[in-house]
Amino acid sequence: MQTKNSDFSLDASANELYAQLSGIDTTRRILDPAPRESSLLDLLGAEEQWLDRNRLILIEICWLLADILHKNRHPSPGHGDDQENALWLAIKQLSTYPRFDGTISIRYRGSGFPGQDAVQEQCDYEVSTGNLLLDLQVAGSMAKRMAGRPGSAMPNQLLAAFKGFSALGINHFYLDCKVCSEEDRTRLLNSLRALTRYYREAGEPGNSTALVFDEYNLPNPNLTLLATINKVNPASIQKLVREITPMLFGPEPKEALAAFPTVFNAIFAFPKLNAQLNKPPIEVNNIQRLMPGQTGAAENRNQALLSRMAIANYGTNPRQVAEVLASVSSGGYQNIYMGTLQKRLTLATDFLNKSETAPQSGKVRAEALHNIETGLEMVPDELYEAMDIFGQNQDTTKTGQISSHNGPLHEEISSLLSFFTRRSVIKKKMRDMVRGQVKFEAQDYAVIARNFKITDAQAAHLVQLLNGCFDQNGRFRRSAFEKSIPEFVQYETKVFEFLWHYLKELVSRDDRVSFLNAMQHLIAKLDRPSEALKILLGDIFGQPHRVGFSDRNGLLLANILIRTYNQELGNHIELTPEEVLQVKMGLDQDMLGQALAFLEETQEQLFRKLRTIHEELQKTLTREANDANIPLRYLITLERELIIFLALVGGPISHKIIHGVVKEYGNPDSGMYASLKSPEECKSFLQLLQVAVRGLKRFSGMEDLLLCTILTDQEPRFLALWDNDSHVALVKRVMEWAR
């Protein structure tokens, strides 16, 4: 990969911006270097380096695309061929990534981050292929990890590429980049050349015969590429646009086309046209790809209406189209901060105000408000608690009179904010139950009723049940909880989510254990346990940079959920019995499939979570964290529960991790064993090794057999660690499982 000069490469201001971006990765999305020698951390680090290599290829592809689009607008001899060849080679190299799905998506996200300026916001793109994601924060972390090594300067090109896409008004760039044949290469590069010609001529459309205009009489890159790739006269495609437009927007629109937001998308709904015309391998600003779930299916008709209205009102500004759509889609409210939240709601207000005079305004407004409500459901409570950024205080928020910088928010948006703000207050009351009895008001019951989709009377009853689970000193009463389970389960997973998120971190250890055992009984009665598993896994791995007391309990409950029979159910336990590693037929295949899919989709988070746990364990073990709130025994048992979960779920990711765990704890000469202060500490690690060995035996690969052989050869060195009978017996038991 060679870095080439570009007329949109990093200038001084961009370099300064990149320096800022590379220092803001407070979420620890990417793994930092290991603090001390560890084969397990080395394994996780190697996985990260492997991902970085693929991210570097993605960066080069982005940079080459932007460079080609800019340079070829003013072509120079030989330049285009070199860049095109480099692009094709990079795509072929990326295709070896196992999760490469043959497509690359470059999407303007516009979520930003606190303290951003206008330039930074314009560069907030996200690149994805398969499960590999890349943005400026990720690139910043890569640059830190790769400092001083070949390729360490490559992430700087990503910012240059994003600036290039922004300058061209690109809010979404979609690449169908199959690499099966020379024909794929020809189609892709021909599309790219046609796109550069489009940008050359779109500035002066009156002088071009190649441009095709859309239903809004605006030059359209996708329609233009459609004509070029299929070697069809642009006038013929223009005629198609004129014929299909009234079918979408006329007084009697075709029902079969209702789910398509644009003429370009609708063209391929006609079987004859679909057979005659090939879709371009490059699509730019295709609004159907900007709206989540827009696949052309009949259930997406209201979203299509919403998209059409966005183009009709903001179509001359592609970036604003993307931002408006983000404001009326649930995905636009994920991982959001207050400044972006305010902007989203302001744009949503403008959209809703404009929708009042639009065709089918009721459907458009209903779809937008549904999406906004779903999005606001994901906004953290602390943002609702800080609503005064809108120029109003909490009391005003409750009245629904919140305002944006451009005037009052839409009445129905204000109503939603009022609901979610009140809900955050109620959640705080739930947390306060551990400090004593809490009084709830009538408006609290109304909010709970709406949230749980129950009546106010049922909400009052539910709160009464929950209050009854705590005594006057705020101590959890397991007997009262279990007595109320038949009534709790009426509210299904809503009550599970509520209980888990606000009672999982009870102050007293005894209370946490009692709550865990009570929750076992609850999940056994749920009609939809898959939702409970989703909640648990999202909570455990959703914050991979932190370790909490609830993580171990969450994994224990997950280990129960993925089995069809649990002998320990009803007993007072703190750990999953080791014997479950013998279970094969007693696994719930549906739940197992759900867990396996989750691990595959969140592989990076899984690796980061394990790394966080293991680093914390190392620090505690070597007494580097004397003020640690989490004791060593807890961290060991947390790793134990994670190993059992991975062993039961299976799959290549789990296999690789458990193999790494056995390699780590199966080395008696490691610094970890040298740090132990007592046979009791050694016992805990040997028990963990035994669980890992038994888990590894569920996979039985050739490399696993070799590792077990190496482990058994180390028996004399393990025996020499401590001189007492119980240690000897435990070592021999571990070796028996390894043989």
Report on this model:
The chain is mostly helical. The protein contains 35 helices and seven strands. It has a five-stranded antiparallel β-sheet with strand order 3-2-1-4-5. Strands 6-7 form a two-stranded antiparallel sheet. A hairpin with a 2-residue loop joins strand 6 and strand 7 (407-408). The longest helix has 33 residues, at 39-71. The radius of gyration is 29 Å and the shape is globular. 42% of the residues are buried.
Looking at how many chains there are and whether they match, the oligomeric state comes to single chain
Rg to the nearest angstrom? 29 Å
By helix and strand content, what is the structural category?
A: mainly alpha
Unreliable stretches: 1-36, 294-298, 389-405
User: What portion of residues belong to β-strands?
Assistant: under 5%
Mean pLDDT: 80
Strand order of the largest sheet: 3-2-1-4-5
**What's the number of extended β-strand segments?**
7
How far the N terminus sits from the C terminus, by CA atoms, comes to 48 Å
Number of helices: 35
The percent range for helix content is 55-70%
What is the molecular shape? globular
Major sheet summary line:
5 strands, antiparallel
